[in-house]
Amino acid sequence: MSLSFEQVGFQYRGTSIGVHDVSLSLASGELVALIGPSGSGKTTLLRLTAGLISGHSGRIVLDGRDLSGMPVHERHIGMMFQHYALFPHLTVLENVGYGLKMAGVEAGARRKKSQEMLDLVGLGQLAGRRPAQLSGGQQQRVALARALAYSPQALLLDEPLSALDASIRGQLRDQIRQLQQQFGATTLLVTHDQEEALAMADRIALLDQGRVLQYGTPTELYENPLNETVARFVGLSTICTATVCGEGEIDTGYARLRCDTGARAPGEQVKLLVRPEHIEADPPLFAVNRMEGHVTLNRYLGSFNRYDFMPHGAQQPWLGEARSAPADAIAVAPEHIRLLAA
Amino acid sequence: MFIRLVSLSYMLYLVLPIVLILVGSFGETWVNALLPEGSTTQWYLELWEDRSFIRAFVTSLIVGAASCAINTLLCVPLAYSLVHGAKQKNRFATRLLTLLPVAVPTITLGFGYILVFNTDAMPWLGSTPLLIAAHVVLTLPYLTQALVTDLRHQRLDRLEEAAATLGARPIQRFFGIIVPNLRASLLSGLVMVAALSIGEFQLSNLIVGFQNRTYPVVLLQAFYGATGFACAATVILLLLATVASLTSTLASKKA
Fold first, then answer.
1. Substitution target from A49, A84, A102, A151 for chain B, most B beta carbons within 10 A
2. What is the pTM of this model?
3. DSSP H helices in chain A
4. Is residue B135 part of a domain?
5. Domain extent at residue B218
6. Which of A12, A29, A308, B133 has the fewest CB within 10 Å, making it most exposed?
7. pLDDT in tens, A280-293
8. How far is A176 from chain B (nearest CA, A)?
């Protein structure tokens, strides 16, 4: 089932908050993550898709039919909520079977299917329990089973992991992704955790103030961010201002660096972007783009160190990652310096 | 130490009248003394033989039960719409309307009933249905408030959203999700309604007819007779109230 948004707009009454002119398309079975700062409109977009809020302009089209004006219960879109939203008065098995019951599936088949789904998320033996007797991670797995059990046409995940401890988050993340692929469910994931988005999504839409800033694969967003906002939101980086001083050369005020300046004319102001893993610690003396200075802060993270390095004359440190922090110099290969509009 | 002393004296202040009434109901004579003299169960036997008391007791039970039934039908949808759908302006109006019976002195309400229902067009003053209606008006705010608090506390709106995405129509969500999850607060709220209805005196006294007086109204007359009889009649009301509050406590404990 493909899902597409065509110039979707929505505003909460009396505010300018909402989404504006959002166009996105999801291929069948694709998982797209909506990320962005709070208030960027990602949850609004999700709730519009579910039909939990209504009154948008433009079209939301699922498998060829326009969802506008269709009530929630007719949309057949499964949803997983941040706070699980399991029904406390029903058993785990009855929770999973609720969607099937609403669809009119008879009791025997319903129980069988629900039990299968529970087995699939590894909770088969807890079928008779009440939600309150489960841990947060278990509850969210029940919620996942419930959202998938009635074979919905699409799946919506609203910050599904943010209420959980870090230790189970990664595990459940993999399980959600695995089941989503197994069921081939076209999925929208809302998250404020960019790492979650990078790890799970086929494509990511970055929203800011209700608009889509960039829509692409995780690699595209990380390696080719369209602007500084995207670059800052996805991954860690060093971003600083510089001036083009010739073809293939920029000046940061304290160092002249070789890089691809494209069609930019000398004198033009730019922002340079370097990802931490591309900074080389203690390069040889003859290395290109070598800068001397000192480490101002080092964070030991086990398999690597993440450090702030202040080149001589600089006001703002560079962020680097390496097996061990540099003693007195760093270097960046020209192809790893990306220029953005200032 | 000081706090203990205060709470102890308060306890005494609360419990002493009840104890005295209990003692009095078994006393033979009680005139101008701290405690009654002699012991007897005659007052309870007299009470049992007094037709007007028995009838009043039954009337009180009927009115209480009817108030509970009608309140259930009214308050669950009312509380739901208060929390849910109602727009800000309507919400304020509904809140005002439901809280007004609490704020307005009951006697005002009683005079209103007398004025309106003592006319040729609506000569219903003194009828049981009107009595029930009056009790519903009085008790409705309490049950509504209990339900509203529970709806908010349990975040039932979230559960309803989940049910909706799973294909439940509004009516299925209401009866399948909202009502079952409200049963604890509904039960304890209803016990409160019953207790309020059974003990209600002010309004009932103004609008009851001779045939369908409620227990507290008849009780007042007992005070003009023998002290022991009055005490015994009061103990019966007390017993009812205790049963009600015990049920309430048990219900909320279970929830």
1. A102
2. 0.81
3. 42-50, 72-75, 92-102, 107-120, 136-149, 166-183, 194-200, 218-223, 228-233
4. yes
5. 57-229
6. A12
7. 999 999 999 999 99
8. 18
